[in-house]
TrEMBL record:
WD repeats lie at residues 391-432, 514-555. Pfam families: WD40. Residues 89-98 have a biased composition (Low complexity). This is WD repeat domain-containing protein.
Amino acid sequence: MANQLIPTHVFGLNGTQKGCLYFLDDATFLYPAGHNVVIQTVDQKQQKIIAGTPDTYGITALALSPSKKIVAIAERAPPFMLGSERRASSASSESRSSVIPTDARSMEGAESEGRTISPDTKGPIISLYETVTLKKKKVLAGTEFVASTREYVSLCFSSDGRSIVAQAGGPDWNLVVWGLEKSKVVASVKSSNQLAEVYQVLYCPADASLVTVVGDGFAKHFKLTETAFRQIATEIVKRESNWLWHTWLCEPGEHDEKDRDNKDPAIYVSDTGELVYVEGGEVISTLLPDNSDGPPETELTIYYSKGFICGGSGGKISFYEKTEEKDVKEGFKKVCSFKVDNANSKIRGLALSPSEELLVCTLDNNQLASVLLQQKDTFKPGEVPKEVTIQAFHTDSITGLDVCIRKPIIVTCSMDRSVRVWNYQDRQCEVVKFFQEEAFSVALHPTGFYALVGFTDKLRFMNLLIDDIRICKEIGIKGCQECVFSNGGQYFAAVHVNVIQIFSTYTCENVGNLRGHSGKVRSIWWSADDTTIVSAGADGALYEWRMKDFKRNRENVMKGCIYTSVTSVTGSRSFFAVGSDRKLKELDENQVIKVFPSAIMLTQIELPDNSRLLFAATEIGTMRTYRFPLTGEYQEVQASTAPITRVRVSHDANLLACVGEDGILSLFDVKDREKAIVSVGLRREKEALGFADEVLITKSDLDDMRQHIQELEERVKELESENEYQLRLKDMAANERVKALTEQYEQQLQGAQERHDKLLQLKNQEGIDMEQKQMKSEEKHILQMKELEEQWQKKMMAEVESLCTQLRYASLGREKDVLNESWEEKHANVVQGHERVVQELTEEFETKLSEENTLREQVQEDLKQANRDFEEIKHQTEEDTDREIEDLKEKYEAKLVQEKEIVLRLKGENGLLKKKFNEYQKDMEEQKGEIKALFEQKKELYQTLAYFERDINGLKKDIIERDETIGEKEKRIYELKRKTQELEKVKFVLDYKIKDLKHTIEPREFELQTAKSQIWNMEKELERAHNGNTRKQLTIAELKLKLDGFTREVADIRRRNFDARYAIKNLQHDFYELTQLIEDPVGLKEAVKELNEKYVSNKVTMTPVDDDLLAEGARQRDYLERTVDSLQRKLSKDSDSSHKNHLRIMRENVTLIKELNELRRELKVMKLTQQKGGQRKDGEGDSLQLGAILQGELDDLKMKFDQERTKDQRIRKASH
């Protein structure tokens, strides 16, 4: 039977184990998690899992070989009584599979050696695995030296990797060395007494024969021979302290390269926080604890190239480096200190990557932290740097687990008061939310948008947003231990002690209660069609409930058994349940069909639809896979070291998730081959619909995100413009620099060329001078030769003529020979001197020429080098500029793409929200229909209130009639206003004409008196108009008083209408409370009596209205109507007469204007006819006098018009 569960990912770790963290390379490290060893990449996305050995009770120690190819895992042996019971059960049950693979990934090709533990094996075991292939190489077990103990507390490989030393636990505390070639114990010694606890054992990396052990009150050094241990006396042994940890400060093989006098150094950690530096067993110095920034306790240390690293309580990490400074007596100086966690937790494991760039540590609160060390010098003591990354693992027991259909997420809750959402596709924690209360249960809606969490005080309905968990509704159920959504998602069930309450998901309304259990309900299972619910309780009862009427359909009660989990299959009549009796049972309504005993208690079971596997969790942290239909055959894999509290299977039955009390979330791939054959069509349908990408987000968060995107876009634009500006500046600077360098090199080249030309010209000139000197010296020499020959010939002729004798001739011949010899000798000397001078000059000029050529070549070479440098600088500048441009371009393009993706994602989310909003609107319409039906039931109540409505309608009619009357009066007032405006227009024309007259008229005495008489008549007309306006004002005042009376009457009617509506509203509210007691006849009767006493006790008697009062009201109404009509007629007459008066005044004004124009023409003629100056002056004086008089009269007329306009304005204000 092939293994059906393959571990794929583990969220969490064993925070209680110390020093169990190692780096395999710069990209991967390993640590224990549950009953597995996890090999994880640095980016925390990929994991390889080494499953624990069956029949063992957890991992106690780890060790990694120096070559990093082998990992040793020490596992705890089961209790002796339980182990024998399990072996007996294993021997008696023939149907069970007795071979349990330990390496699920290499299951087909793994060797049979080490797959299981022999029943005769005693004590703990050590398993050796290859870190690359994950194959088990060997199992070290069965030695009599550790038969009396259950565990190894510490392991260590030798530097050559040929042996491993293991420190067994109490009570014997035996130290054992295993030889890996023969898998036998090489030597053994008792390292401590029964009272002193041992914490750690180490091989010296530089000496494979030296083993050190530390514990309470001792630190021992042992020399390992071929078959025994020999203890070495050292100074550290004499110091009585409780040593918690120690670390060798050297690398493997480093001892051979050092001088023999230089002992291997080590650091010992005491429980007081002291760090003792030891070389060769002798104490060199002691580093006292620093109490300035936290408690002094140091938990462990590790070695690195410059010194060592300490990890202690409070999440504090310190770096110590070796120094030669004289003022540092200890030899080590603290160079860096920081925290990785603010939760005041202790560091239990440290590991440094081979490149010493990444530090990983484990904490006792089950957290894994990593920190990049490139900027460790900038870290501040007592603070958590931003480079620290902490995994969001649970820190306490996980109490709730659930999965959904439409999303690849898992929701868990824990006693650490947190709710976490995990994505099992991306292998990460998406959302973490902490609360004030502890959480006991959690349920996830099939859509993945909603969750139920049961806290100590309430059950809370929550929305799962994109980055948060928001509380939507609180339900008053305290300490809800179990809550489950229906498969369709329309209902959810919550347990309140022994009652199961059913709620509607979309209204959170309690639609029913399932009562029947006498003990706490421990498990709930919904059928696939949500028509039935199966529940199991601590009272030993299994009930099947109908959702139609919330009644029991079937039951099976077994007293004395506390059920912990129940499940069933759709369409089957059987239940499957596990409980405290350690049995897996298949039950019907009246009988137990099958029973499969177990040596350990089963805590949870899961049976997916269309699957041939049943999954069961145990109290020791293992997962069992039973073949379905049940035959008793099962397989078992390790998951946790504590009891498993919850198990869930994904909707497609391809993933199993389980959680335990140790805070570990384990994921398994389900390999069900029969399921793959049976349900091919179903899988194809499920594959056609992938997981949903939609998420929930609030409108405020969306607006903030949009605003942030807008700000980022603006920032990008600003950066683009700034970068363009900077690039232009850089281009300008580069161009100027290139231009300056070009001019400089051109100048240098031009100067070198000029020097070269000068030197060449100088050389040519010196050559010409040398040739001229040589020609002159040759000519001089020829002339001297000719002169000497002529002198010689003359002397010869003279001698021949003067001497006739032979002796003389002979003597002259000899003298000639002597002279010839001397001349030849002189000639040769002259020629040699000349040649020597020519050669010296030639050599001198050739030397100068070679120097000039060398200088010229050097200048040319400098020029070429300068050109090359210039080209190189130009090329590098261009490359740097292009690289910066490309980097900025890629950076901002990446940001732009990211922002576009965010915008697209938000658009999709907005579409989903709109869709959900439409669905909610449909639901609201349905609820409105229900409310309408309820209102139809209340028609009888409305009939009793009909007479109130009739009174209201009558009052409304009266109000409408009076509004019409008021409207007619307002129309009349509007006409008066319009006529007043026309008068103002006429007045404006008159004002304009008067202004014209002031500038143009020249009065005359006769015409002025005529104008005065006309003005007097106009004043009388204005007085009559003023009297008419006064009467109109009185009439308007009376109308306003009547209007105020009508307004007060309307307000009184409206108040009475409001009182009636308020009484109706109170009656509706009381009637709604009455309907809540529809299921309680007694309470309903009492409520009806109270309602009757409240509203019907005072009988309303309809008394008829007195006829005399009606007649008086009609008479008053007729009188008012006649008064209003007469006032309207009088107002129209007054307005007509006023209009006629204004028209008459306008006609008289026109006549006056004509007469003024005639006077103006006559005055002009008079001016033309006047001839004399005196006459002209007299005429001008008369004209001025006449104009002043006319101007005064016109001013009086204008003042009267202003008074009339003021009165008209007062009339209009009074009418309003």
